[in-house]
Write a structure and sequence with these properties.
The protein is α/β, with parallel strands linked by helices and 348 residues long. It has eleven helices and 14 strands. Strand 11 and strand 12 form a beta hairpin.
């Protein structure tokens, strides 16, 4: 890399994660150029060529073999191969972004972190939902004291649809990073730890509601934070009706918001960063702040703009200037530790 030249980036995997959650931010940020995309699927290879005609399409082995010529390697691959791929990229001298789930085990996380430290290269985990508009709003309310002292944090991420029997998320076991707790739970646990600090797992309820899956599709965990807050986290792929996305209760006020951040659906239909209205939440979907008993009026709180592009802006700064990475891998390790403990309490 020469000073000022775009950071040469390779993406491993061009499914939903690579195509929707990584490539658009790299393609719209002039600090990066997508040099290579690895996929073994002919249909995805055609999609990659159409969307990013200047990128070379190749196998994962080929991309890793030329990682020394890249500044950044993005792993949008299944979690059970992250350790091998990340260590190879780091040892070649590239910085690494790993999509969540980070890895299936604490041992894997520690090995990757050790490789990054030995190579002295930036390593970060794509916990993009720290940049959801609703979560950014919750964070502002908590940090500003608008709720008083928070005692309970409820976070729900539920969907309803066909089981993922034909996708790796539904086929692999928890030992390989499969299941709803690794998938959506990685977001919810990370958000709770980001808001309220270190926590101990108190309750874990994991269940495979639908037959034929390699791991659970419905889960609940309760965390007790050292700060005194209790986090109740619910995630599901079999929820015909969803609860509030966030309900945060303090000793002075509360905040409740429904629905999901709109950046994912925008990206799925090709509405990339820079498009008019990207990351904005309509007023009808704003959350309410106040107290139900009438002591405080329930007032709508404008949802902050969703800001997924900020993640890669911080990645560029970490590579170019030595700035902190957007998500510390040691923080992501603590999320893996809690998930590992939850599975140990609920063996399949």
């Amino acid at each position: 890399m020469t000073n000022g030249a775009p950071l040469r980036t390779g993406i491993i995997g061009f499914g939903l994660a690579g195509r929707v959650f990584h490539a658009p931010f790299l393609a719209t940020n002039p600090a990066f150029t997508i040099s290579a995309i690895a996929t073994g699927d002919p249909e995805r290879a055609a999609q990659a060529t159409a969307a990013h005609p200047d990128a070379a399409i190749m196998s994962t082995d080929a991309l890793l073999a030329q990682a020394a010529d890249l500044d950044l390697v993005v792993l949008a691959s299944p979690p059970h191969v992250h350790r091998e791929q990340a260590v190879a990229a780091l040892e070649a001298g590239a910085a690494v972004v790993i999509d969540k789930p980070f890895v299936p085990t604490v041992a894997d996380a520690e090995a990757i972190i050790a490789a990054a430290e030995a190579a002295q290269r930036p390593l970060t985990v794509f916990q993009n939902r720290r940049w959801d508009g609703d979560f950014r709003t919750v964070r502002t309310l908590v940090e500003s004291g608008a709720l008083g002292t928070v005692h309970r944090f409820e976070s729900t991420f539920e969907r309803f649809g066909a089981p993922k029997r034909d996708q790796w998320q539904g086929q692999i076991s928890p030992a390989q990073g499969g299941g709803i707790l690794f998938d959506l739970g990685s977001h919810l646990i990370d958000q709770a730890l980001t808001l309220f600090g270190p926590a101990t797992l108190e309750v874990a309820e994991l269940r495979a509601v639908r037959d034929g899956l390699g791991s659970e599709d419905d889960a609940f965990v309760s965390l007790r934070h050292e700060s005194g807050v209790r986090s109740h986290l619910t995630m599901s792929r079999v929820a015909a009706q969803s609860g509030p996305r966030f309900r945060v209760l303090g000793d002075q006020s509360g905040y409740t918001v429904y629905g999901l951040d709109g950046q994912e659906p925008d990206l799925k239909v090709g509405r990339w960063p820079g498009s008019d209205g990207y990351g904005e939440t309509p007023k009808a979907q704003w959350g309410l702040l106040g107290v139900d008993n009438g002591e405080q009026p329930l007032v709508p709180v404008p949802t902050e703009q969703g800001a997924y592009p900020d993640f890669y802006a911080q990645v560029a700064a970490s590579i170019r200037d030595g700035a902190p990475v957007p998500v510390d891998a040691r923080h992501a390790l603590e999320t893996v530790r809690i998930i590992e403990q939850a599975h140990a309490l609920n063996p399949r």
